[in-house]
Amino acid sequence: MATYTFRKSVLKKPETYTATDGGLDYTFDGISHATCPYQNIKSVRLIYFPTRLKTNNYICEITLNVPKDLKIKIPSISYVSFGEFEDEATSYSQFVKKLTNHISRANPSCKFYAGKPIWKFIIENILVLLFLAFLFWLLSAFSTAVSGIVVLRIFIVGLSLYYIIKAYTINLPKEFHPLAIPEKLLPS
Question: What is the CATH number of the domain that holds 56?
Answer without folding.
Answer: 2.30.29.30
